[in-house]
Amino acid sequence: MKRFFFLVLIFQNAFSQEIPLNVQKLIKAYPDQIVDYKDNKIIFRDKSNLIYDDFKNKTNQELLDNPDIEDQFKFVYNKADKNLIPKEDAGRIRNEAFFKKIYGNSKSEVESKMTEIIWCPKLVNQKIKVTTVNGIDKIVKKLSAELDNNPEFKKYITNIGGTFSWRKISGTNRLSTHSYGMTIDINVKNSNYWQWDCKCKNEEVTLSYRNQIPLKLVSIFEKYGFIWGGNWKHYDTMHFEYRPELLL
C-alpha cells in the first residue's frame, strides 16, 4: 500500500510540473531567453520568471488590455489562405511584460540590441533597423533575400511603412510591437487597416474584410516566423511581426 501511494505521489508531482504545449513552443521559439517552466511560471535564463496563467476569464477587451502569457495562445493562428476570412485576432493578444523581458524594458534598452541592415538590396535597397535578439536580424536578411528574388512584389515592399518605433498602438495604452524592433510594416499604399476603413477605434465595430497583399508574399514572411496582421478580424494587412511560437 505504501508503495502504491508513493507511486501516486510521484505521478502527481510529474503531472504538476508537466510543461504545457504552448510553453514548449515558447521555449523552442525563444531559446536564448526561456529555459524552463515551473509552478505556473516561465523561467528565463537570468533566473527571473513571469506568471504563465492567471486563471481569469476575460472579455475580448480584457484579453487585449490585461492578458497573461497563456492568453497569447487564445486563438489559433491560421496561415494565409485565399478562402480565409478572419473571425479572430490570433497574435493580437500580447502580454507586455513578456515582450519587454525578451526585447528590452525601455526604448534605450531595445535600441542597444538593434542593428541596421539593407532591406531587399536589388529591388529596394532601403536601410532598416531590426533587433538582434534571437538572431532576428539574420532571419530578416534571409527573408529579404528571398523577397528580392520576386520582382512582382516590388510595389508592396518598396518604401516600407516602418520597423522600429517605440510607441503606443493608435487609440490604446498598449505598446506596439514596433517598439521591440521585430515588426515590419510594408508599403502602406497597398495595404488596408481596420481603423482607416471604419474611421474609428471601436473594437466592436462590424468590419468588412479587405486585403490587397498577395498571399504568396505573406507565405514567405510566415516561412521565416512572421505572422500577418491580415489574418486578424481587426485586419492590418501591412503588418508582420516575429511570432514563431504561433507558427509551430
From TrEMBL:
<protein>
    <submittedName>
        <fullName>M15 family metallopeptidase</fullName>
    </submittedName>
</protein>
<dbReference type="InterPro" id="IPR009045">
    <property type="entry name" value="Zn_M74/Hedgehog-like"/>
</dbReference>
<feature type="domain" description="Peptidase M15C">
    <location>
        <begin position="171"/>
        <end position="242"/>
    </location>
</feature>
<dbReference type="InterPro" id="IPR039561">
    <property type="entry name" value="Peptidase_M15C"/>
</dbReference>
<dbReference type="Pfam" id="PF13539">
    <property type="entry name" value="Peptidase_M15_4"/>
</dbReference>
